[in-house]
Amino acid sequence: MSQVSEKSMDAIVSLCRRRGFIFQSSEIYGGINGFWDYGPLGAALKRNLKNAWWEDVVERELPGPDGTPVSVVGLESTIIMNPKVWEASGHVGGFNDPMVDCKESKSRYRADHILCLGVKGQAEGGQIYAFLEGDDDGIAKARKKLEKYVKRDLADEELDTCAFMDLSAEERAITVGPDTKEVGTLTEPRMFNLMFETYCGAIRNEDAKAYLRPETAQGIFVNFHNVVDSTRVRVPFGIAQMGKSFRNEVTPRNFTFRSREFEQMELEFFIHPDEAQTWYDFWRNERYRWWQAIGLAGDNLILRDHDTAELAHYAKNGAGVCDVEYKFPFTAPGYGELEGVAHRSDYDLRQHAEHCGKGDKWRYFDQQSNERYFPHVIEPSAGADRGTLALICEAFTPDDSRASKVYMNFEPRVAPIKAGIFPLVKKDGMPEIGEKLYKELRRKHVVEFDVKQSIGKRYARMDEAGTPYCLTIDGDTASDQAVTVRERNTQSQERVALDKVAEFLDEKIGS
What we know:
It is globular and about 85 Å long. It contains 15 helices and 27 strands. The strands form eight sheets. The protein has a seven-stranded mixed sheet. A five-stranded mixed sheet has the order 24-23-25-26-27, sandwiched between helices. By secondary structure, the chain is α+β, with helices and mostly antiparallel strands. The protein starts with 8 loop residues before the first helix and ends with a helix. The longest helix has 20 residues, at about 40-60. The chain folds into three domains: about 5-75 and about 215-395, BirA Bifunctional Protein, domain 2, CATH 3.30.930.10; about 100-190, no CATH class; about 400-510, Rossmann fold. Helix 2 (about 40-60) crosses helix 11 (about 385-395).
């Protein structure tokens, strides 16, 4: 497989549109920035990813650090909660990003996403050209504008790249914005709260104001004692949740990587404070292993520990924070976050205990040790949309030896369609045999029955959908009671008896 950095993001986005993985939301009306719809294949792929996460985190037996099965239960909290939840968590007062407006283009940017290009040691009166981080076309345009301004070609060693946030007021005054021609059109950075506001009830006033949740974690924290009181769980145990979250990103970009509406797969694992390091190390390694197991096992996946400067307020002096990161085509040679694993200490439970008036009464009581304490938390928090995008980017495999010129190398567990069933021609009883096989297999697996177009075109369509196997009913099937099975990656073929096909798929894909 080619390295992800060699893959064209334009080609990947084109395939997603053409084959029904991902569409621009409200496309017929010009779309809306930061929002995406999943087509039939994309919805199936994302659902398979979420199902795999739920099965492996909540339902299946997972041995913990001492060999004892890990205890995890599920939860589904509401998207809109009492606004006091977000005051206690710090989101109302501190969930902000630095924002810059352009007075000429009326565009809005994250200040920490703006980079600037200038000439090293340029004399007073020069100009600086801004572009967005990760925008290869943007930096090329900025360089072209700079060379036009100085009226000569510039060598790489003459260029000076820095962050907009690091510029002085004087330097910002001579900076040309990403989409402008004049200097000084970018405003000074100011803080911008990322939460979407809404109102509950008929009257729109401050008393009715609420927020769309920016994360699913707080729904877990406020339900901690409800779960403890209504089930037989005891520390250490986890509460898992999947669901939509919303962040009013100033500059959503890079396809579905940074969106305003996204889906999270979060686990809050509650532990005794003395066991923080043990459980952090466990989940750190387990979550990295899991992403490898579902198809991201190559060099494009890394596990990166945070340095001290990156740590969030709840993670200071804790057991650690790390990110599982993937090398997307738009981040290469760097990486983008798929999942964070953090020791959140007891920050959240203490905050809610204080703000709801429970105080120390909200401490957890351990009957075995006769001890009261606020549990610490290890939080593995993954993005379902980023995970889906990583699976798409990793699976995208150019191959000039086949009609489609590309195939999607999904792990069978997450592939949207597990098998295609193709009568070679629409006669001689082949469609009837194929339809009977289709009805049998679809009881366990997602399969597709197709009798249209040539067999080569049907293979090509399944290649682009990432279907692991194609089953062809041909002229010999009626007599030998077997079908030809084509394997997606190698295009190799073998004969499998009709009454063994279900067993074959169970073995290859999982029953």
